Amino acid sequence: MVSTNQVAEHVRSVHAIISRPQRPAGHELVARSWLRCFHELGLDPASEDTQPALQPQAWRERGDKLGEVMDSAVPEMQALHRQLDDPSSALVLADAEGVIVSVVRHPGFAREASLRGLVEGARWSEDLQGTNGIGTVLTERHSLVISREEHFFARHIDMICAGAPIYDGVGEVAAVLAVCSLSPGGARALRALVERSARVIEHRAFRARHATDYLIRFHAHAGRVSTAVEGMLALTPEGEIVEANHTGFELLAPEGETLLGRDVTEFFGQSLPELLSRSYRAGFHPLTLSMPQHQTWHVLAQQPARNRNQSGSRSESASAAQALAELDLGDLRMAGNVHSAMRILDRDIPLLILGETGSGKEVFARAFHSSSQRARGPFVAINCASLPESLIESELFGYKQGAFTGANRDGRRGKVLQADGGTLFLDEIGDMPLQLQARLLRVLEERKVTPLGAENAVPVDLQLVCATHRDLRAMVREGHFREDLYYRLRGMEVTLPPLRERTDRRALIERCLAEENAGRHPPVRIGQAAMQVLDRYRWPGNIRQMRYVLRTLVAMSDGGEITLRDMPAELMEAPEPAAVATGGTSPGAAPGDMPAAPTSNLNPLQSAERDALLAELRRHRWNIAGLARELGVSRNTVYRKMKRLDIDTDTQAGDGY
């Protein structure tokens, strides 16, 4: 906690800043907030007064009012909490008045979080908590970090708080996502991660809220369409804009001009029916529209995900293809998988997804669910390999109160019943014990489930999707998997290729990078040499590994471009790069843009590293000492690297130096 001396010193700092006619450069936002707190709100920086939290019913009602934002935030907050892996932090969601409605934290931090008011029902608006990463975000309407002494109240100066707004469809802040941590350092990375998650929540909530509306998804950069940073418009059947996400407002109404109520033709030069027809003919790939004002938009028009009045019609089929079509980035095997999955949508046919760990099996399953008429229903996932054998049965089928010792006194609905009306995703189905395979088969055949300890079966209506990295055919032959269940599960079977074999790696990298860049201005780009490393790496962890690598590179980037110097060592030292399926140079690169490697034993990764070092040497006009100083290494290190990469004085002479 904060000592008495620290409080006194902080109070002196606050008074010194607010009394100056000139504010310190780089601290305008904090100074502005301190002035509000002192002069307008009458707060004392040394105050220890706190307000009691709202009663559970009150803050739960506030959470319910957030609707789709709350539904979208909970899983994203849990995922971000696991990624942060910070035992001294709390991840919170607050409503538009600063009232916390959801908290995710490490169990060991519960008491400390409670003492600091990081609990459900606590209000963190500026008028109660001074300058902070929730209330100040609500006032300033953009993401920020309030780090330690930047807080107005001295009681908060040992904490870092990074917050980002979540906008509704009319341009107002609906909620704030924030991380408050006592751990040292990492403020910049913390802000980037919170911004990304806020955009993901906002994106999911907007799509869920407008599942029965026409959508326009667009951006000035083609790679950002169908990502969390795309612009989105919700339209009436006549093409009138009824809502837009925050990016939509930024792109189409940057000066705050009226956007809602206008016709989509004003912005894209074509009517809604024309855009829908062209999107359908293009296989749901973004259209490129060049406008008279020299603005180019990449646009995707989407029909309602569910149209109850046109069930089974061609227009609904076109809409249903959308979520799955987003997974087709040019790889022939993935295109075949997408096409196969589209053919069984809403036909009550189980889907079995095969593929290595990290190859995107759950992503494919979620896209299949989102593309179906069950999209409004729940998507319930359970990993059969992550639960002890003794718990799988109760998790799947549920139990009646008092069914066994230690059971919840109110009983529990199992995952099967939770998925009623939606999709049940059984990941790693190959790890399900044999005795439970028989029960699952009976549920699939009878469409009824009997919880443990219950006498009556309960009807259930669900779409089943299973996934595994195991060879189920071999398991059937060896007696480890029931043959009858295997054939019941594989109504349609798709095999996802590992990332190292996909021909659309660059497109996938660019899409993931766009998602990680959410809310970052300017966005980080990948340099050509660095892209070659990413493209040629074998990715043993598949797409999951690639996402974490990109997330780290973006979070840790100090400039606008990721270069070879930013690459993790395991990528640079990979002994066996994957074959380049895209044909060598990147699109748009002239043959002479990169210096060719000499005829030697350099592998493609080393050639890319050599090209990057040559470019740096030429930029420094072959001044080895100057280059070494910029890189923060010794001249001998540069010389050793030159020798390893076959760069010598003959190369320098060829450059004319």
Question: What does this protein structure show overall?
Answer:
The structure is a single chain. The chain is of the alpha/beta class. 41% of the residues lie in helices and 15% in strands. A 5-stranded antiparallel β-sheet has the order 2-1-5-4-3. The longest helix is centred in the first third of the chain and has 23 residues, at 187-209. It is globular. Mean pLDDT is 82; it is low at 306-321, 402-407 and 576-600.
Provide the spatial order of strands within the biggest beta sheet.
2-1-5-4-3
Let me know the number of strands: 21
Major sheet size, sense and barrel closure: 5 strands, antiparallel
Q: Could you say which structural class the secondary elements and strand pairing correspond to?
A: alpha/beta
Compute the average pLDDT: 82
Shape: globular
What is the CA-based Rg, rounded?
28 Å
Amount of beta strand:
5-15%
Helix count equals 27
Termini Cα gap: 61 Å
Helix content: 40-55%
Unreliable stretches, pLDDT < 50, 5 or more residues? 306-321, 402-407, 576-600
Briefly, what is this?
The chain is α/β, with parallel strands linked by helices and 657 residues long. It is 41% helix and 15% strand.
Name some characteristics of this structure:
657 residues; alpha/beta; 5-stranded antiparallel beta sheet; 21 strands
Topology:
Elements (H helix, E strand, L loop, with lengths): L3 H15 L9 H13 L15 H10 L2 H17 L4 E7 L4 E6 L4 H6 L10 H4 L5 H6 L3 E4 L12 E8 L5 E9 L5 H23 L4 E6 L11 E5 L5 E4 L1 H7 L12 H4 L3 H10 L5 E4 L5 E7 L11 H12 L6 H12 L7 E4 L6 H11 L7 E5 L5 H9 E2 L12 E2 L1 H4 L4 E5 L6 H13 L1 E2 L8 E2 L3 E6 L3 H6 L5 H7 L2 E4 L9 H12 L8 E2 L1 H9 L5 H15 L4 E2 L6 H4 L31 H16 L4 H8 L3 H10 L4 H6 L3
Parallel strand pairs: 11-18, 11-19, 12-15, 15-18, 20-21
Antiparallel strand pairs: 1-2, 1-5, 3-4, 4-5, 6-7, 6-10, 7-8, 9-10, 13-14, 16-17
Helix pairs in contact: 4-8, 8-22, 12-13, 12-14, 20-22, 21-24, 25-26
